[in-house]
Amino acid sequence: MDYAFKGGVLFVNVSAIQALALAVLTYYFGVWVKKHVSILEKYSIPSPVVGGILFSIVLSILDGMNIMKVHFDSSLQTLLMLAFYTTIGLMASLKLIKKGGTLLVSFFIAVSVLVVLQNLVGMTIAQAMGLDKHYGILAGSVSMMGGLGTAAAFGPFFEHTYGVTGGTAVGITAATFGMVAALVLGGPFGEWVIHRYKIQTPKQPHEPEEKLMLPSDTEVSITSEQRANTPTFTDELMKAGSIVALCMALGTVVSSYLGQYITLPAYIGSMIVAAIVRNIGDFTHSFSVEGKGLNAVADISLILFVTMAINSLKLYELVNLAIPMIVILAAQTVLMLAFAWLVFIKLFGKEYDNVMLAVGGIGFGMGATVNGLANMQAIGEKYGSSARAWLIVSIVGAFLIDLVNALVITYMGTL
User: Fold this and answer.
1) DSSP 8-class letter at 44
2) Using CA atoms, how far apart are residues 94 and 107, in angstroms rounded to an integer?
3) SS3 for 10?
């Protein structure tokens, strides 16, 4: 860690390894705070957000008062981002898509349209309020449909490519708002639809309901089908890490080639290679994508990548954007509720499966897949589960929409 005093201000340069260590510390600090502040647990605010935001607030105050300015080496953050999005590509199974049937395709098309609408709403309001349109995209599908991971990835991309000041702070702040709003609104929206249209449900309220789990097909780790014995977790983790590293390496070649024709985030090439690898395994049966190894790689890389991104936020850059952000996020909330009602209920039909798709769609359309599943679980415990809707939201929200969202964000950023 290098430091120097200049003009009465302490300048600190944090190396990549030190930035990683700080991310670990702030993450576990966030875990501790969540255990002691019940409202954070109630609304499922991620530990990286809790610890990272508190840390970045302290640094932003010190920076704003010209006491200390900190610069983080982001090289490991970039590596972790590539690793996470590679695991997303490894979930893109064509066989899983086939299991969802026409309803999955319809739902996928609908949320893809929603991606475009979120950006159009954000861009329109941003420009009307005299801001760069890219702020509207960051408070659009980058943070709403994309969530924290996409916000942390595209924030720096917009800052470097389009010169957007505070892009990462805008994206992560909007994503945090979206996660809370999705959890607050999803359940009540489902209740309103069920009572408003007298939807027939699988069971009456207060009957016990068995918890649904993610389909086994969405377990993600690279293991051999031919092993006589169940592999150890270390073995699964090593194989998962190896396949992720190989996909990342090949992905850099793909990204370099595509970069000659279009500006894309660095992880796109790795996602494409990973999706190809996943489906080669599915159709040749030479290896399978199952188990816990890749889940661990995905979770660890996401936690550290997002925490490192939040730690380095310059929150003081949000001061002049506060009112426009409030307006844009309010409009995004109205859009999400209107879309869920008009499309998932009125267009798809007044059936219980579609109610579950709506509450799940609100969850990941404004936050993350896990929020969508939490909304569905809350409704399911009272009125009965919908295995079909659960599968569709898991598949579309976990990886399909991320692929589409990345391409739409990149294209609309150039308009």
Assistant:
1) T
2) 16
3) strand
